[in-house]
Amino acid sequence: MYWYHKETKHSYYSVRSNPNQMDWVLQPSTYKNYPNRFEKIELDKNNPWHGVIYYTASISTKKYYPHGTHRYLRVNPSAGALYPNELYFQARGVEGFKDAIYHYEVETNRATLLYALKETEGIEPYMGYETAMKGLLFLVSAVYYRSSWKYRNRAFRYCLLDAGHLLGSIEHAALLVPHTTNIKYDIERKKLNKLFGFSTGDTDGREVFLSGASVATALEKSVNAVQFELPYVDGSGTFEVNEMMELAYKQTSYLLEKTPQKTKANFYYEKTRLKESILERRSQRGFEGQAITKLHYTRIMEALNEPIASDCDEVVELFVVLNRVQNMPIGLYHNAKLLKNEDFSQRAGYLCLEQYSLGTQGAMTFFLLSTAKNYQALYQKAGIIGQRLYAVTSYLNIGCSGIGAYYDDEVNAFVEQEGMVLYALAIGR
Ligand SMILES: Cc1cc2nc3c(=O)[nH]c(=O)nc-3n(C[C@H](O)[C@H](O)[C@H](O)COP(=O)(O)O)c2cc1C
């Protein structure tokens, strides 16, 4: 098991002896905005290519809290609504964008033009492409302090899960163009971090690239690796170094042996409802103990089991506790096979750090595990699966919540499997 994962486990005792204490004075910003001397392009969600960005990461609601404060929530979910990830993209040959490299400014729903491309250059070579790609190429980074401010050492897990959610969000928004998405984990992180101004002097490591994705088709045209210089633009306001996370990032930045997945996913979503359900998606804070149908179950499992096309497809095992699905035996399942026919609803709630309103009251509780080696790739894949679950349940009007906090070793004991417990999620009504 990767040492970082081992060191950041939660247990019944760890959460009591070492509770998270937040220093509110240091609360980081969740937005990164380039200065106004950069050209900014207002996104029009009715333009299909602008829509891919809009339906991936825009603000979708304003949430009010009892003490008079509010917060903006987005299309993509994020642990603690801290949104550690930033989205960059290259547009080539698409309507509504000049051929250029952009940053998505979430706060204002604008694309900031960072660098206008000359015809023979692009970011393709940094992402493993040999020819120019027509469409959008994405890069996902993490401004890790946004998450480590609250979650301390465990935050690298959340940066990766949230990045996976963003990749999964791209996957669904791309269906509107329509296009399939290819995930790229084998990107030249070091060169890209330098190119985008992330690794300059004192600020080195505060923002780092984690992955890429393409919503594009190959052209028969060669392309050179683009070179430019960008200033470092701070994405958190406050900052405290986390050496454990920085080390984990560096150690996992070069991929070990990798197996690509070339088969593309096939989803059945009607466009108008998909758009609506993307904007309506929310995390449900608790369920009322109502069942879902077997048809829902089938539809959900189909969406989760579709392949995820990528350059490094790590195996992620899916264990599911069924609490309330009509006409289905309750119990623990693995790969659609019933392992134990028992009422585990209490146990599922307990394992999710005693979040009983989710794990116990829900219809199904998911646990994702892996024994694979490429930590950044396998963790982001768990996030993509999580996003598929949010997307399909939102489409079907079923509630969903990601659960990043669980008792790691006790989940292992429950499913009787070793390996890293990556994520839990609950769905229900
Ligand atoms: C990786 C991840 C872990 C999460 N963990 C929890 C959790 O343990 N408990 C919980 O109530 N919500 C959890 N959530 C839900 C977030 O709090 C939620 O996404 C965020 O507040 C934004 O709200 P929204 O999803 O409604 O947009 C998690 C979400 C993600 C993506």
Automatic annotation (TrEMBL):
Q: Extract one GO molecular function annotation from the record.
A: oxidoreductase activity
Record PANTHER family = NITROREDUCTASE FAMILY PROTEIN
Organism annotation = uncultured Sulfurovum sp
Q: Where is the signal peptide?
A: none
Checking SUPFAM superfamilies in the record gives: FMN-dependent nitroreductase-like
Protein name as annotated: Nitroreductase domain-containing protein
